[in-house]
Design brief:
Two copies of one chain form a homodimer.
Chain A lengths: L2 H10 L7 H13 L1 H14 L3 E2 L6 E2 L5 H4 L4 E8 L2 H10 L4 E5 L17 H8 L4 E5 L4 H14 L4 E4 L15 H9 L2 E2 L1
Parallel strand pairs in A: 3-4, 3-5, 5-6
Antiparallel strand pairs in A: 1-2, 6-7
Helix pairs in contact in A: 1-2
The complex binds zinc ion (2 copies).
Function (chains A, B): May play a role in DNA repair. It seems to be involved in an RecBC-independent recombinational process of DNA repair. It may act with RecF and RecO.
Pfam families (chains A, B): RecR_C, RecR_HhH, RecR_ZnF, Toprim_4
InterPro entries (chains A, B): DNA_Rcmb_RecR, Rcmb_RecR, Rcmb_RecR_Znf, TOPRIM_dom
Chain lengths: 191, 191
């Protein structure tokens, strides 16, 4: 097969959930739509240079993200999320006016991810000037392990809450609709 | 949202079958896997510079593709395919030793694609030095319209065949297994 087509298919197959067939289909589409393809390539190259916010670990173009810079946001409430997918989801729904902390992972001994890999020292530092920490984490073994670690780490010095019950057990937070999320926020309860 | 993430999501959504959710997931994966992401971007930029073979319209890095340059291939048999997906599929199965002609489309009055858009003059020219033309096209309105146009164009001067019956009506050629394809090739019949 043509070397550069083979290379493209090979690298696209690394994307999560993309097999040989889809990679071939996307590769041919890209070759047939070269303007869009060049735009995608350019946007990838720009996006990989995004940094993590020095305060909250949200993605940003500069050192500190727009949310942390926004003086209208309530800095005394920190919502801890696993990925920025959850942050983006919450932001698009406009139901939360505090700030965030993005963990970029959960403690998972099975996958070799431990507390030291999660930058929790920074969260501890941020928590010192806050009044409430909301743990917006998946209801899974890893989510609960991480929540418990954070609770122990903050050691009773701050109010720690979680989304209200009403979220089905084992449900992925990123699949919830606006109403469920809003209710879960309003009824949040202390750990 | 972060501008460069938004741009990346926006351009990835143009890929066929990719919606907002998948585009976000792929974008975040790319940002978190910057080495793979840079490789994908580089491979896209190389692949969009692929040319079409001057003889058969297969994709290639130079003017003429490896299949047309290969002296062991039977140049007197031309297999006409709609897309190079079919060509790649047939090549990976090693069941055909002739050459190809890639149409890059089918006649479709509904979509405004007419014979003049398919580079059929070049096929006519190639057919002059060939003994057999195999029409390996989908069994659809567009596939049959295109087949009939080619038959009329070549005007009885050459043997024109199609894959043997056994391919289910309306079935997409690219979904067939090796055995079905091989049988269809062996039992090909004249139009
Ligand atoms: Zn921030
Ligand atoms: Zn060729």
């Amino acid at each position: 097969m043509i070397k550069s087509l083979e290379n493209l298919i090979g690298s696209m197959k690394k994307l999560p959930g993309i097999g040989e067939k889809s990679a071939l289909r996307y590769a041919l589409w890209l070759i047939n739509n070269s303007q869009d393809a060049k735009e995608i390539a350019k946007n990838i190259e720009t996006a990989v240079n995004l940094k993590k916010c020095k305060i909250c670990r949200n993605l940003c173009e500069d050192d500190v993200c727009d949310i942390c810079l926004d003086s209208s946001r309530d800095k005394s409430t920190i919502c801890v999320v696993e990925t920025i997918e959850t942050l983006i989801n919450l932001e698009s729904q406009h139901i939360y006016n505090g700030v965030y902390f993005v963990l970029w992972g959960l403690i998972s001994p099975l996958e070799g991810i431990y507390a030291k890999d999660l930058d929790l020292d920074k969260l501890k530092e941020n928590a010192q000037s806050a009044k409430e920490i909301i743990l917006m984490l998946d209801d899974s073994i890893e989510g609960n392990l991480t929540a418990q670690y954070i609770i122990d780490m903050l050691d009773g010095n701050i109010k720690i809450t979680k989304p209200a019950s009403g979220i089905p057990v084992g449900y992925n937070i990123n699949s919830l609709d606006r109403l469920t999320l809003q209710k879960a926020f309003q009824n949040r309860i202390p750990y």
